[in-house]
Amino acid sequence: MPASTDILAPVTALLLLTAVVWAWMYITRIPAIRKAGMKLDAELPKGQQMSELPARVRWKADNYNHLLEQPTLFYAVTLTLALLGAGQGLNVTLAWCYVVLRIVHSLHQTLWNKIEVRFLLFFLSSLVLIALIVRAAMLVWIR
After folding, report:
1. Mean pLDDT, rounded, for 99-120
2. CB-CB contact of 38 with 92 (8 Å)
3. Residues 6 or more apart from 97 whose CB is under 8 A from it?
4. Domains and CATH numbers, the chain
5. Cα Rg for the chain, rounded, in angstroms?
6. Is residue 1 classed as helix, strand or coil in its secondary structure?
7. Could you write out the DSSP letters of every residue in 113-133?
8. pLDDT value for 4
9. How far apart are CA 89 and CA 81, in angstroms?
10. Phi-psi category of residue 89: left, alpha or beta, with phi > 0 → left and psi -120 to 50 → alpha
11. Whole-model pTM?
12. Residue 31 to residues 24, 25, 28, 51, 111: CA-CA distances in angstroms?
């Protein structure tokens, strides 16, 4: 693999995390729905029925949704860096830092979910992501 594509390893790791959380969400949600005897009703407002499930079940779905929000910026910036031939060195280190923080964030949100800790993890990962975005912008605009 060329050095400029080293950054694709953390991208793939985050994609795998998203797939694992997706599976975990359904492994916990479907039995909870059955246990509650819920009849799914498309006429109810979005999220109303799922709000009746235990918090520990909902946390997995919340985290899955979070993995489809801000990480989209991560995917865009890392692919941009790879295309620019800058997918190595500090950029890879920052990408791995982002992924590790998101893994810790996911574990925290799905298992304990103390909001202050979750916010700190989100804030730190956001700073890393902003650093990647700035580095990509500098390559595109200042080259």
Report:
1. 98
2. no
3. 128
4. 3-141 (1.20.120.550)
5. 18
6. coil
7. --HHHHHHHHHHHHHHHHHHH
8. 78
9. 11
10. left
11. 0.94
12. 12, 10, 6, 15, 17
Measured between alpha carbons, how far is 18 from 15 in angstroms, rounded to an integer? 5
Instruction: Pick the closest to residue 132 from 3, 2, 10 (CA basis).
Output: 10
Place of tokens 């998101």: 102
Q: Which tokens in the block code for residue 49? A: 């029925």
In this prediction, residue 46 has a pLDDT band, given cuts at 50, 70 and 90, of: confident
Say if CB 121 and CB 101 are below 8 A apart.
Answer: yes
Report the distance separating Cα 117 and Cα 124, nearest Å: 11
Contact indicator for 87, 8 with CB cutoff of 8 Å: yes
Identify the residue whose tokens are 């793939």.
12
Asked whether 18 and 64 are in contact (CB, 8 A), the reply is yes
Alpha-carbon distance of 3 to 10, in angstroms, equals 13
Report the distance separating Cα 115 and Cα 143, nearest Å.
41
d(CA 20, CA 31): 17
List the one residue out of 125, 118, 13 whose CA is nearest residue 73.
125
Taking residues 73-102, report their average pLDDT: 98
